[in-house]
Amino acid sequence: MKKMKKFFAVILSLAMVLGMSITAFATEAGTATQAATGKITVEGLTKEKTTVKIYKVVSWNEAESKWEAKAWAKDYVDLTKNPVTIDWDNLKDVATDADLYQPAKTVSNGTAEFNNLEIGAYLITANGLTTEYNVMGDFTYDYDSDNLMVPAQKTISAKASNYTVVKTFKNGDPDKGYPDKFVKLGDSIPFVITTTFPSYEDGTKDRTFTITDTPTGMKITDIKVKVGNDELRANTDYTLDKKLPSTEAVTVNFASAYIGTDNTHAGKTVTVEVTATVTETGKYSNEAKTNKASAPSKVEGETGSITINKVDKDDNVLKGAEFSVALDETKLEFVKVDTGVYRLATADDAENTKVTNVVATNGSVVVKGLDEGTYKIVEEKAPKGYSVVDVPNQTISAGQNANITVKVTDTKLSALPHTGGIGTTIFTIAGCAIMVAAAFFFFTSRKKANK
User: What is the reported pLDDT for 443?
Assistant: First the structure.
């Protein structure tokens, strides 16, 4: 009996040792409780509205002490490696809203927080109006003093991958455009360029930042630059590579001293206000780009025109007619560009080059650079041998009615009917005959009386 007690005592001791060894193995393998939760804070975002999304990629199976990849992400996770490896860059391309771990957050204070995260690996993406960020990812665990895996709080610094640049008509919608993008020659148009001040990796020696504005059919007359709410000083905080006004591209070069070495301005909204004057008829455009943005941004507008064709009743071309064009009861002034081609006069034109009458030298005349509106056309002088006729008002508007053609048909003077018709002529002749006869009888009767 004593031997049996000793035997059971030995068995019990062995069982206790085995139990201790299993616990030690689990600890070494990272067994942990999920009672607590972790947190991920994303910082370094711009102060514009930014959408931040989080996806769970890998979870920890506590019961089996192993990592498990989510079904949507398994092709980009290698669980055989220690530590587990994840292809974050390719993973972001397959993540969908259906895979979100928590609802997306929209922030504008530069920071996004995700709480109540279980132990695991999480993918994070962030995109703003003018900034795209590198994909982010991290594990939400750490080890305590007993070498047990516990939930942890992690902080990730967002790094921009692509800075976008947006060019708009001032106060306009990026899609719809400024209400007055249909303008007349010589109009001054305000534009706004919006982008994000870049961040630079530690140790970066070549810290440059430039914004270039390229006009087509325009000349740039003024540029103002703001970073955040601060208006920058020209020739101190930045310089322009050309003097204004300029019909060529103008580049804003931020000064090295302003850029600095500690990313003071990183993530702030950069606003460049550009004023440009329309210098050419037809289409005009304005394009912005930076040395950090992935693609340029361009806006376009236009001016209108009226073409007047002068013909006779058989549609034969008539040469030499002169016309005036008025808007709001004011005759417009034009400058001759070529035979039968005129453009709207501007403040830059010399007075002796301006005319109010345009000539259809070869039977046709076009006036360009017109704004939207209803125009009154008057035939001031008809071709020799033809009459002046009325011309219907013409309305220019954006789209299909930007460029209008009107046909003016004249009638020969010799073909005009006599005033009053043939009946009047007969009565006139008859009246004259009666007067002559009366005079004859009057003088004849006087002679007889005198005898």
Answer: 55
Q: What is the per-residue burial (b if ≥16 Cβ within 10 Å, else e) of 100-138?
A: ebeeebebeebbbebeebbbbbbbbbbbbbbbebebbbb
pTM, two decimals, is 0.67
Confidence of residue 353 (pLDDT cuts 50, 70, 90): very high
Which residue is it, tokens 């630079």? 200
Alpha-carbon span 273 to 288, nearest angstrom: 11
| Residue ranges of domains in the chain | 38-162, 164-299, 304-414
Q: Which CATH class is domain 164-299?
A: mainly beta
Q: Are 184 and 369 within 8 A, CB to CB?
A: yes
Residue 261 has pLDDT above 50, yes or no: yes
Q: What is the CATH number of domain 304-414?
A: 2.60.40.10
Is-same-fold flag (164-299; 304-414)? yes
CATH number of this structure's domain 38-162: 2.60.40
Q: What is the pLDDT of residues 34-79, one digit of tens each?
A: 556 899 999 988 777 899 999 999 999 988 989 999 999 999 999 9
